[in-house]
């Protein structure tokens, strides 16, 4: 016979909880739990109901009703708590024990309808803890099965797998390849998303510029309001800010993925589920997390919203910006974050020593020497002033080359011609080997086949490099750089740094000579 709760003063708290995973269990419905608990305490009992509908039992921290109940317990407003099962209270044993210890100190007892043993004895507490251990194991098992099922569906189909809806799309139920599921289709927000991509692709446009523009024009751009969207990966959650807009701009969900996008994923080391033929220039791509912390990509059934050329230009710009985001603040020189040692390849520190109020000395230090003692020397003989002068001259010359090349409609990039030459050499060798295959015996045939495979791999890598170089050349816009370089002496150190970071990937200096080597990014 179940032991009734006696009301010795104070209010009885009835706590009910139902997670999404319990939706098929009618006995754990909110109404069923309420009815059973009220019947248990008696209709004449003074009680207060606390309800968490749709919340997991993995912890107590994120359940609003539970937190309110604990707050009331601390204020002395309740004297006992009644639940249908202990796992409604918590499925996490550690979490439960922490809360139980606090409730014991507050003089609040927890009663369970389904497990009516006396928790005031050590035997009763042991039975309760065993049940909670099993509940925690069950929760982790269910979570693992859900994750496995999600991963399997994500790899096998191009359907939208749920979770948060991504900005620019809504869903429709469709049958594809004999299976029914949710397919993303463009929503009324799609045009605003395309505009965001087009704006960011401009060299001089920042995330903040886009946010400001949308805020100022939100009556016209009514589907991208700054107070409505912007969760993780552009989902409808939270407020649109620089972080959420950045996530939208790097999400391959929106690209009409073609062979160039396939090559981009290869270069990033992502696991690619589909063959290259699936990258047809029409469909977008889902990106998922692997269990090992990596990424895998799967072509979806939905159509992308932006061209591969535009999407890849945006990725190039974001990649360039990322290289310098930790070194944005330039104090001692506008070359901060750009200098590296030619001998060890590590960063060169630009520091400043104030010998007197009018005598400030700038000097270079090798981080390879200072941190791991793996370079030839600590300091350099070349002066920072001389480096700045040489780099500025090279930037002006580079800009002039670009402008001339634009007029001639050809890029001043000898590396492109070199790559093309290497590809032609590989083609010649492959053709020669294929001619020899007809007369080769089995051993030689296998050797030639392996060699051709290696050459094709090298050729594919060179073709990807060529595509990347070609995209960068198309994206170059020298106009935003012309004016700053012309008025260089009037710019602040930070402004000079920002211009240099747009043009330069790295400047190598050497301990062994005063020569410098500049690698331009444009």
Q: Would you mind describing this structure in some detail?
A:
The protein is of the alpha/beta class and 522 residues long. It folds into 3 domains: 131 residues, Rossmann fold (3-Layer(aba) Sandwich), CATH 3.40.50.1390; 155 residues, Hect, E3 ligase catalytic domain fold (Alpha-Beta Complex), CATH 3.90.1750; 182 residues, no CATH class. Helices cover 46% and strands 17% of the residues. The chain is built from 16 helices and 14 strands. A 4-stranded parallel beta sheet has the order 2-1-3-4, with helices on both faces. Strand 11 and strand 12 form a beta hairpin. The N terminus is likely disordered.
Brief synopsis:
With 522 residues, the protein is α/β, with parallel strands linked by helices. Helix content is 46%, strand content 17%. The chain has 16 helices and 14 strands.
Topology (elements, then pairings):
Layout: E1 11-18, H1 30-41, E2 47-53, H2 64-74, E3 78-83, H3 86-89, H4 93-106, E4 109-112, H5 122-156, E5 169-176, E6 179-186, H6 190-201, H7 207-216, H8 242-250, H9 259-267, E7 271-272, E8 283-289, E9 295-303, H10 308-324, E10 339-341, E11 348-356, E12 359-366, H11 367-371, H12 384-408, H13 414-437, H14 442-475, H15 479-486, H16 493-503, E13 504-509, E14 516-520
Parallel strand pairs: 1-2, 1-3, 3-4, 7-9, 10-13
Antiparallel strand pairs: 5-6, 8-9, 11-12, 13-14
Helix pairs in contact: 6-10, 13-14
- Radius of gyration, whole Å: 32 Å
Strand order of the largest sheet: 2-1-3-4
Number of strands: 14
Oligomer: single chain
Series of H and E elements: EHEHEHHEHEEHHHHEEEHEEEHHHHHHEE
Please outline the major beta sheet: 4 strands, parallel
User: Shape from CA axes?
Assistant: extended
Low-confidence stretches: 1-8, 225-238, 323-328
Helix amount: 40-55%
What is the number of domains?
Answer: 3
% residues in beta strands = 15-25%
Provide the structure class: alpha/beta
State the distance separating the first and last CA atoms.
82 Å
User: What integer is the average pLDDT?
Assistant: 77
Count of separate DSSP helical elements:
16
Protein name: Recombinase
Domain Resolvase/invertase-type recombinase catalytic: 11-157
GO molecular function, one term: DNA binding
Coiled coil: 445-479
